[in-house]
Design a protein that fits this description.
The protein is an alpha/beta fold. It folds into two domains: 168 residues, Thiolase/Chalcone synthase (Peroxisomal Thiolase, Chain A, domain 1), CATH 3.40.47.10; 123 residues, Peroxisomal Thiolase, Chain A, domain 1 (3-Layer(aba) Sandwich). It contains eleven helices and 13 strands. The strands form four sheets. Strands 1-7-6-4-5 form a five-stranded mixed sheet, sandwiched between helices. It has a four-stranded mixed sheet with strand order 8-13-12-11, with helices on both faces. Helix 3 crosses helix 4 and helix 8 packs parallel to helix 9. The chain starts with a strand and ends with a strand. Bound molecules: acetyl coenzyme *A.
Length: 335
């Protein structure tokens, strides 16, 4: 038995940074950013942390689902921007919610992560290992961005989205998932490695460690991106993946009510729309307001669609994510 989404929630920081505001930091302008990305504003953490945004989004999802925390038996948080390495953000969320019956773990698949968390829960449900799960995409990317790099700082932002999935005999689910580690250099951040090397008190093997340390420079500790490579990858692989999924499920474009795509760039979204031969009416966008929030983007959009009553019971949906790894995937569900 698979599961159905029975509640959603999201949280974005209050603080808004406009394109014009970014002109103070880098050589850019509002017109360039809107034209090339579609982004007008983004929300950026001040007092918030990734894990607290995750908790706030989760509380809203629990409230909508009318589910008590102790009913949750699995919590998965998708994040590449955890505030701390240990314990996991999922365990932190469990504690704050008092969801004491849940098994908890984090998952990092960058912008594809929320959908892979959804798929993971579906697989556990099908195997009978969980009944009521909380999945969250939470990202504090503003702390990982080099604010002097105009190629990245204009894109990324902060937020969290969550969903409650409950086992249901009528639930429908299918997916297509891919990864290509050979293209990993297109989107990187090597901080973890740098911090580890710096923290070691070297005695034996000192030469090796010093050599490793020299591989890294300050830029490696921020998100680095070959924008054009990511763009080419996304406009080719994401539509192919969605078409592969539709063929696998025996469904056509007209059978789908909504396509919820990762919110990276308006031009990427429009290119996907063209290639899967659908219309923009079925492909909502909120990147104008939030920028690219990585694995939080699909659940924030999902929550907006539910709360605006644009996504209703019985609607058929394809969610698709793509990002660092490189990774990409599409999943089919009936809401
Ligand atoms: N403001 C003004 N000019 C800029 C800026 C900026 N912020 N950034 C780059 N430029 C300049 C470049 O220096 C270049 O100038 P030149 O012609 O004098 O050399 C010119 O604009 C064109 O640069 P390109 O890199 O070719 O610009 P492009 O049209 O490719 O747009 C962008 C760049 C927006 C990053 C685009 O490549 C893109 O969106 N790629 C996909 C990125 C993405 O979506 N990443 C996330 C997906 S995965 C995930 O979400 C983690």
């Amino acid at each position: 038995m698979f599961g159905k989404i029975i509640g959603t929630g999201s949280y974005v920081p209050e603080r808004v940074v406009t394109n014009t505001c970014l002109e103070q930091y880098v050589d850019t302008n509002d017109e360039w950013i809107r034209e090339r990305t579609g982004i007008a504003r983004r929300h950026v953490m001040e007092q918030e942390t990734t894990k607290d945004m995750a908790v706030l989004a989760a509380k809203r999802a629990l409230e909508m689902a009318a589910v008590a925390p102790e009913e949750i038996d699995m919590i998965i948080v998708s994040t590449l921007s955890s505030d701390i390495a240990l314990p996991s953000t999922a365990c932190y969320v469990q504690d704050k919610l008092n969801a004491k019956n849940a098994v908890c773990f984090d998952l990092n698949a960058a912008c594809t992560g929320f959908i892979l968390a959804y798929n993971t829960v579906q697989t556990y449900m099908a195997a009978g290992f969980c009944k009521t799960a909380l999945i969250i995409g939470a990202e504090g990317l503003s702390k990982l961005v080099d604010w002097s790099d105009r190629g990245t700082c204009i894109l990324f932002a902060d937020g969290a989205g969550a969903a409650i999935v409950r086992a249901d005999e009528t639930a429908v689910f299918d997916t297509v998932m891919h990864a290509d580690g050979g293209q990993g250099d297109a989107l990187t951040m090597k901080t973890g490695f740098a911090e580890r090397v710096r923290g070691i008190d070297v005695e034996p093997g000192v030469e090796v460690l010093e050599a490793n340390q020299n591989i890294l420079n300050e830029k490696d500790t921020y998100i680095g991106m070959d924008g054009q490579a990511v763009f080419r990858f996304a406009v080719k692989q994401v539509p192919t993946c969605i078409l592969e999924l539709m063929e696998k499920c025996g469904i056509k474009e007209e059978d789908i009510d909504l396509f919820l795509l990762h919110q990276a760039n308006e031009r990427i979204v429009k290119s996907i729309v063209k290639r899967i031969k659908t219309s923009m009416d079925k492909v909502p966008m909120n990147l104008q307001e939030y920028g690219n929030t990585s694995s939080a983007s699909v659940p924030i959009l999902l929550d907006e669609m539910v709360r605006q009553e644009k996504l209703k019971k019985g609607d058929r949906v394809i969610m698709a994510g793509f990002g660092a790894g490189l990774t990409w995937c599409a999943s089919y569900l009936e809401f």
